[in-house]
Design a protein that fits this description.
heterodimer, A: 391 residues, alpha/beta, B: 99 residues, two-stranded antiparallel ribbon, elongated
């Protein structure tokens, strides 16, 4: 039987890792991820989990150690944030291309400089194209559930890609929330022991991460990309499986009050929760507004997004990261490409806010939506507008 | 990679299950010039054998040497180091001088 407990979200993530019975954790502590790895170190040291905790000297080493352990077929977890994710950057690519089912929790944090330990989405946007499956959490329950689910998806023999579970640093990682913790029996039913098909084994040697001459590189990448695209139905299938056992259903694009909505606000991550308060408030006032939330960031849910915005006149997109000199926020530019050429696609207003840990209050979301309606109707000048900046 | 070369033949993670596949890669193809060996000048000292960075020079039982064209990249180090000038570097595609 599951039990509902009040627990810090970071600790709930560690609980999920413990219940997943991982074999190896290799991580380097960094704010705001620290509580996750700290509590895991404790869980392992106290003998509650039979696993190796590898204390490494950097994030680059953390991910490298994860490559090794995953390659021998051990269930492997790591976690990082901000600068740490950037330091491990090159190895993040290697994990995906070597098809190692590593699970990583990222406590999203702004990038230096100026140094900021607070949350935004700059860190994950820099590893957007690494070939990891990437999802976003909105609340504590998501962080627990998606961490657990990530192992199941990553290790599925039709998948074999690493999975990154994004949760906003501090805004999500450091809050205490009521979270439904399942029983070990339920977890075991959902997550079978790992069975990595081609582990490093002296009796059956294979070469991993070999070099490829120009004659082969393109074919290898094409094969990887086709497999990555083919994970879409399996992502859905494993979420259905999850719902059957735990009763909570996740979707690539989540909807809130979208029925009959003329204006949609698109958010990603924990700010979605605050934004929904603004949506409810405006609905009460008779405004035809709704909200869609991106859960799945890679592979990008093109079809689900098109379906979700069907019939809407305006789409207001909030980004918590910059793409310097680019076509707008990373989410907005992705959504605009997804909607290119779609007949009757909504007009887009692209906003950037919530950088470096700055809050967006419900009343500011109300303002954002009101302003967004004007901007979308008029046509936005320039690729995006930064909101809440002192002039 | 598997026997065929299409993207469908790639193993997940591009792992190689068969040992020795690097042998199929003829690095001698990189050459723009190749050494021509004059056995008459050779004193069997083995300096070329020691210096060759690709281990493309073999010493035969009689002490003279043999160049492995499959691996020789044509760097010219043998010609530079040979004490008696037994090697001449000749551009690829040019006829070897008849001795």
């Amino acid at each position: 039987m599951s039990k509902r407990v009040g627990i810090e979200v970071s600790l709930a993530v560690s609980e999920a890792v413990k219940m997943a019975k991982v074999d190896v954790v290799a991580a380097y502590p960094i704010t705001p991820q620290t509580h996750i790895v700290e509590s895991l170190a404790e869980i392992i040291a106290e003998g509650h989990l039979d696993a190796e905790y590898v204390c490494v000297e950097s994030e680059h080493s953390a991910m490298s150690a994860c490559l090794g352990s995953s390659a021998v077929g051990a269930r492997t977890f790591t976690s990082t944030a901000g600068q740490g994710l950037e330091l491990m950057h090159e190895v993040v690519y290697v994990a995906a291309s070597m098809r190692l089912p590593i699970v990583m929790a990222v406590a999203n944090r702004a990038l230096s400089s100026p140094l900021s330990v607070w949350g935004d989405h700059s860190d994950v946007m820099a590893v957007r194209d690494t070939g990891w499956i990437q999802v976003f959490c909105e609340k504590g329950q998501d962080a627990f559930d998606l961490t657990l689910w990530a192992f199941r998806l990553a290790e599925d023999k039709r998948v074999l890609f690493p999975v990154m579970v994004n949760m906003d640093g501090f805004h999500l990682t450091h809050v205490v929330e009521p979270i439904e913790l399942p029983s070990q029996e339920e977890v075991d039913r959902f997550l079978p022991p790992i069975d990595f098909p081609t582990p490093l084994n002296p009796k059956q040697p294979v070469t991993m991460g070999a070099f490829a001459i120009p004659q082969f590189y393109t074919e290898i990448k094409k094969s990887q990309e086709v497999d990555f695209e083919n994970t879409r139905p399996i992502i859905k299938e494993t979420w259905d499986e999850f719902a059957k056992i735990f009763g909570r259903k996740y979707n690539a694009v989540e909807k809130y009050m979208t029925d009959g909505a003329e204006t949609l606000l698109l958010t990603m991550g924990s700010f979605s929760q605050t934004a929904s308060l603004a949506i409810s408030e405006l609905r009460k006032q008779g405004e035809k507004v709704g909200q869609i939330r991106l859960r799945l960031w890679r592979p990008f849910p093109f079809e689900e997004l098109k379906e979700a915005v069907k019939g809407a006149k305006r789409l207001i997109i909030l980004d918590r990261a910059l793409s310097s000199g680019g076509p707008g926020g990373p989410v907005a530019s992705e959504v605009k490409s997804a909607l290119y050429g779609v007949p009757g696609a909504p007009k887009v207003a692209s906003f950037i806010a919530g950088l470096g840990g700055r809050d967006i209050l419900p009343e500011q979301f109300v303002e954002m939506i009101r302003h967004g309606i004007e901007v979308a109707d008029k046509g936005q000048e320039g690729p995006y507008e930064m909101l809440g900046v002192r002039e | 990679m598997a026997k065929k070369d299409t993207w469908k033949d790639v193993e997940k993670g591009a792992i190689i299950k068969r040992p020795g596949s690097a042998r199929e890669y003829k690095t001698g193809d990189w050459r723009s010039q190749h050494p021509v060996y004059d056995q008459n000048r050779c004193i069997k000292c083995g300096v070329c054998y020691l210096y060759c960075p690709d281990a493309a020079i073999k010493i035969k039982p009689d002490g003279f040497i043999e160049i492995d064209e499959y691996y020789c990249k044509g760097c010219g180090i043998c010609a530079r180091e040979c004490i008696t000038g037994a090697f001449t570097m000749v551009p690829e595609g040019k006829e070897e001088k008849k001795k």
